[in-house]
Amino acid sequence: MLSAMILLVPHRGKFITIEGLDGCGKSTQLKKLEKVLRSDGLDVVVTREPGGTATGEKIRKVLLDTGTANLSPLAELALMFASRAQHLKEVIQPALNEGKIVLCDRFTDSTEAYQGGGRKLGSEPVLALHRILCGNIQPDLTILMDSDVAASVERARRRNSAANNGKRGDENRFEQESRGFFGRVRSAYLAIAGRESQRVAVVNARGSADETHKQILLLVKKKLKLAARTA
Length: 231
What we know:
Rossmann fold; 55% helix; five-stranded parallel beta sheet; 9 helices; alpha/beta
C-alpha cells in the first residue's frame, strides 16, 4: 500500500526562467517555447514577474507606473520581493509540487540586475532577501537573452508607444532610464551568469526570433531530457 501511495506522488516539476533587458524579446520566446512544450504533451504554467497573482499585478502597476518615478530604490526592492513571495506561494510552488513545468518571465536575477546593478544597491541585499523571503529557491534553468543595450531599449519604447496609440504608456518607468542604467543592468546579468554558470545559460539574442528560439529550445530540451527538435 505504501509503495502504491508513493507512486501517486508526482515528481517535482521544472522551474525555467527567462531573463534579459527590456525589449530583448523575452515575451516572444516564452510563447514559442510554451507552444513547443505543450505540443510535446507537457503540463506548462506560464507566468511573469513582477506580477503573476492578483496581488502581484497590483504591485506591478505601482512599480512600472511613471507616476512613481521618485520611488526609493529600497522601496522598489521591497515591492519586488513582496510580489515574488506571493507569487511563489500562490503559483510557482504549487505548480512545481504538482510536477508541472513553470516558465517565468523574470525572477530574482532581474532584481539583482535591475535593483542591484542598475540602482546600485549591490547584490548582497537582493540575495539576502531572496534567502529570507523566498527560501532561496532557484530555477532549474535560467535563459539569459543577451542583447544590445541601445537596440533593446529602443524596441521596448516603440512597443510601449504602439500599445498606447503613440502615447507614452504607464508601463515604461524603467524604459525611461539612461543607457548607463541599462549598461549596468547588462553587466550585472553577465556577472550572475559567470557566478551561476551551472544554472544560467547565455543566449545571443541579437539575431532573428527564430534563431534565438532554436538556441533556447536546445537548452530546454537538454534540461528536460526530451528529444531535440527545432520547431
